[in-house]
Amino acid sequence: MDALHTAGIHFAEALQAGPPWLEKFWISVTSLADPKCVFTICFPLAYFLDRKVGVSVLWIGLVSEWLNVVLKWFLFGERPFWWVHESGLTRKELVTLRQFAVSCETGPGDPSGHCMITGAALWPLVTALTALASRHSRSLVVKLSPFGAYTLLLLAVGLSRIFVLAHFPHQVVGGILAGAALGWGLQGHTPATRTVGFFVVAALALLLGSLALHSLVIAAGIDIDW
């Protein structure tokens, strides 16, 4: 893992060595793609366009947020900003990295929540836009443009997370793949006809489930908050 982490640090160095104007771009992307934006921006917009799509975005966002936390408890995952010092790499070689206001994230880092939750929650919106484009155009470029934009967005989010030293590249790749797979798998199981009470109960069940799981892991002697 040390070799993988070291390679990730060098990749982050290369990103930070890019043109100065890219710094604002990466920081803006990582801020706009914060998972909470799924609930405050993406869900209302999707619901306004189509109720079923909006509910799907909300449901998948909720489940993926929960699953991301649980996965991090078991996969752990170092954060580049902390690892580069704790590993002693800075004593072995010259490492030129910059710190930003969003760099010092705590907690396990694998998989990337930004990539996983955004990738999962936007999947139903992207497929809906693809279906809409297919009905109004025969052009393959137009039909594939929603998925093209989706791919570019996730790539930009992933690179931004590496740039600010919040994640290693392999954590970003894992987050993107997990998010796309989760969105694809859950889209067909959206409880669109359920009442608000169902979602309240589901949210409470996920909360209580995570608290119970947290207690079991701690009882097993695993320090989640290491």
UniProtKB/TrEMBL annotation:
<comment type="similarity">
    <text>Belongs to the glucose-6-phosphatase family.</text>
</comment>
<feature type="transmembrane region" description="Helical">
    <location>
        <begin position="140"/>
        <end position="162"/>
    </location>
</feature>
<feature type="transmembrane region" description="Helical">
    <location>
        <begin position="198"/>
        <end position="222"/>
    </location>
</feature>
<dbReference type="InterPro" id="IPR000326">
    <property type="entry name" value="PAP2/HPO"/>
</dbReference>
<protein>
    <recommendedName>
        <fullName>Glucose-6-phosphatase 3</fullName>
        <ecNumber>3.1.3.9</ecNumber>
    </recommendedName>
</protein>
<keyword id="KW-0472">Membrane</keyword>
<dbReference type="GO" id="GO:0004346">
    <property type="term" value="F:glucose-6-phosphatase activity"/>
</dbReference>
<keyword id="KW-0812">Transmembrane</keyword>
<dbReference type="Pfam" id="PF01569">
    <property type="entry name" value="PAP2"/>
</dbReference>
<dbReference type="GO" id="GO:0005789">
    <property type="term" value="C:endoplasmic reticulum membrane"/>
</dbReference>
<comment type="pathway">
    <text>Carbohydrate biosynthesis; gluconeogenesis.</text>
</comment>
<dbReference type="GO" id="GO:0006094">
    <property type="term" value="P:gluconeogenesis"/>
</dbReference>
<keyword id="KW-0312">Gluconeogenesis</keyword>
<keyword id="KW-0378">Hydrolase</keyword>
<feature type="transmembrane region" description="Helical">
    <location>
        <begin position="56"/>
        <end position="76"/>
    </location>
</feature>
<dbReference type="InterPro" id="IPR036938">
    <property type="entry name" value="PAP2/HPO_sf"/>
</dbReference>
<feature type="transmembrane region" description="Helical">
    <location>
        <begin position="168"/>
        <end position="186"/>
    </location>
</feature>
<feature type="transmembrane region" description="Helical">
    <location>
        <begin position="25"/>
        <end position="49"/>
    </location>
</feature>
<dbReference type="GO" id="GO:0051156">
    <property type="term" value="P:glucose 6-phosphate metabolic process"/>
</dbReference>
<feature type="transmembrane region" description="Helical">
    <location>
        <begin position="116"/>
        <end position="133"/>
    </location>
</feature>
<keyword id="KW-1133">Transmembrane helix</keyword>
<feature type="domain" description="Phosphatidic acid phosphatase type 2/haloperoxidase">
    <location>
        <begin position="53"/>
        <end position="187"/>
    </location>
</feature>
<keyword id="KW-0256">Endoplasmic reticulum</keyword>
